């Protein structure tokens, strides 16, 4: 998508606030759309963003740096920076608002594009339908909200089917769902239509009301002992509070 195309879309103004050592991104409202601890710009500050990394429970930690991560919606760049800097992954973020990209580079320590990092100005729904994306992505993070944060901007069974088509055989999509319970249930049903109910896992909601849902391209049910072991390795290696995840993270449909 070029600048003329984005000019035709009404995009919210991007602003920045700080409280103590934490910097926040806003899209025209007081809603926090992303955060960064100023002294630790490449760590994940928000609990729900940490949980968006739950796909790590389903892969060999030794293989992570060889994998490909894609984010739909840049936010404050937290997941993009973490995958690029901490996990050392090939990383792409797709963002519709050029102001968001500019503010992330100026205020949120987002590195410039390079060999392992690409930030693409585009409409995510259109971009992922372009040839060449199929079966390429190991970790897809979807966090697409407008300035009102009432429900996901892209939230149809067709969109989730397009997301599934991007994934490798053992690839995962994680989605941030926020809002009323009716919105959550509708989103979950659309994901189940695209991925199948057996492919879906979900965390309990955070205190702020964010529920992270994970969808697998190929459904699997690792034993609790395996998840616990992986969680301990994730916490030791990358500093995420993963040892708590298996207690709050369950399949949507139990066998």
Automatic annotation (TrEMBL):
Keywords from the named record: Polyamine biosynthesis, Transferase
Keyword Transferase: yes
Key word Transferase present: yes
PROSITE patterns in the record: PABS_2
Active site (catalytic residues): 143 (proton acceptor)
Residues annotated as domain PABS: 1-221
Matching InterPro entries: PABS, SAM-dependent_MTases_sf
Pfam family, one: Spermine_synth
Annotated family: Belongs to the spermidine/spermine synthase family.
Name of this protein: Spermidine synthase
Organism whose genome encodes this protein: Comamonas endophytica
Biological classification of the source: Bacteria, Pseudomonadati, Pseudomonadota, Betaproteobacteria, Burkholderiales
């Amino acid at each position: 998508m070029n600048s003329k195309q984005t000019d035709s879309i009404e995009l919210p103004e991007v602003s920045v606030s700080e409280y103590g050592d934490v910097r926040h991104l806003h899209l025209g409202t007081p809603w926090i759309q992303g955060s960064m601890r100023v002294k630790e710009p490449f760590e994940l500050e928000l609990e729900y963003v940490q949980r968006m990394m739950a796909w790590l429970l389903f892969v060999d930690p030794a293989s992570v740096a060889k994998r490909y991560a894609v984010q739909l919606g840049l936010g404050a760049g937290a997941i993009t920076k973490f995958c690029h800097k901490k996990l050392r992954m090939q990383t792409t973020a797709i963002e519709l608002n050029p102001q968001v990209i500019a503010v992330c580079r100026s205020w949120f320590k987002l590195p410039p594009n390079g060999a392992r990092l690409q930030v693409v100005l585009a409409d995510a729904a259109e971009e992922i339908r372009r040839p060449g994306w199929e079966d390429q992505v190991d970790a897809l993070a979807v966090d697409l909200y407008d300035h009102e944060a009432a429900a996901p901007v892209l939230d149809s069974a067709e969109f989730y089917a397009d997301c599934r088509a991007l994934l490798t055989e053992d690839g995962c999509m994680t989605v941030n769902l926020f809002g009323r319970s009716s919105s959550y249930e509708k989103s979950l049903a659309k994901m189940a239509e695209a991925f199948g109910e057996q492919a879906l896992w979900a965390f309990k909601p955070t205190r702020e009301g964010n529920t992270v849902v994970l969808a697998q391209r190929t459904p699997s049910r690792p034993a609790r002992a395996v998840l616990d072991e992986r969680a301990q390795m994730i916490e030791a290696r990358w500093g995420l509070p993963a040892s708590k995840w298996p207690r709050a993270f369950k399949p949507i449909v139990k066998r």
